[in-house]
Amino acid sequence: MSGVVIDASILVKLYVNEVGSLEAEQAVTDADLILAPDLLLAETANILWKYVCRDELSTADANRILSDILQMPLRLTASSDLVEPALKIAIETNRTVYDSLYVALAIQAASFLITADERLTNALAATPYNGHVRHVGGAQS
Question: What phi-psi label fits residue 31: left (phi over 0), alpha (psi between -120 and 50 degrees) or beta?
Answer without folding.
Answer: beta
